[in-house]
Amino acid sequence: MGKNRKVPLIITVINLIMGFMLAIQYQSMKTTYAVGQQDFSTLRQNLQKEMERRDGLLNDINKYDNLLNKYNTSGGEIRSQLVEEQLLEAKKAGGFTEVTGSGIIITIDDPNSIKNVETPVYDQDLLDLTSLLFANGAQGISINDYRLIATSSIRNIGESQIQVDTRPIMMPFVIKVIGNPQNLETALKIPGADGDSMENWFQFLNKTFVITKKDQLTVPAYNGNNRIKYMKPSVQKGA
């Protein structure tokens, strides 16, 4: 009789163990599915960016093919005009002329700070932010009206003071960005590889992070010193 009583108990224990194992397996599959969906979304976004980049390169190839054809088939006066136009385009692309268009303004501030007090936002935070913006189609960026160009540096001086090139900047940081407002805003709000969005990161630093879309916005031209100081020709004349 005792043995007969043990059988239902053993069956009950086995059922409980199997139910527990099934629950764990289901939860594991659910988590794997969620991670897979997230990975798929990230891959799709990266693919979209690469396709846009490819289209941009193809457009550039067509543009320069047409330009070369015009240059080869035109007279001296028209050639000079084409050179002037390309010089203006190069200055614009390099940041040496102001640029106007739609975009966003990002304002980063510390509502609890006293003005002219050192900020816990570091150079790497602003470097990550501006790199993300450029990677998502920004055509011009300025920080507190200092234009960023290819050779610009953002760096800490001392413990926490930040300089853009050789100019110190203080909070609030007002970052003007020319580009597609929706794409730029989305890039700032989408979580990155570490799981945090750029917006969330600055909020984690206890900063206000305000994004304002603009139909018309002007980013000033670079007005710093861009002379090459240390490079020297490797071959002398007559050598």
Question: What's the layout of helices and strands?
Answer:
Layout: H1 2-73, H2 76-94, E1 99-109, H3 123-135, E2 140-143, E3 146-147, E4 154-157, E5 161-164, E6 167-169, E7 173-178, H4 181-189, H5 198-204, E8 208-219
Antiparallel strand pairs: 1-7, 1-8, 2-3, 2-7, 4-5, 5-6
Characterise this structure.
By secondary structure, the protein is of the alpha+beta class. The protein has 2 domains: 1-61; 101-219, 2-Layer Sandwich (Alpha-Beta Plaits), CATH 3.30.70.1880. Helix content is 50%, strand content 19%. The chain has helices at residues 2-73, 76-94, 123-135, 181-189, 198-204, and strands at 99-109, 140-143, 146-147, 154-157, 161-164, 167-169, 173-178, 208-219. Strands 3-2-7-1-8 form a 5-stranded antiparallel sheet. The longest helix has 72 residues, at 2-73. The protein is flat. The model has no long low-confidence stretch (mean pLDDT 77).
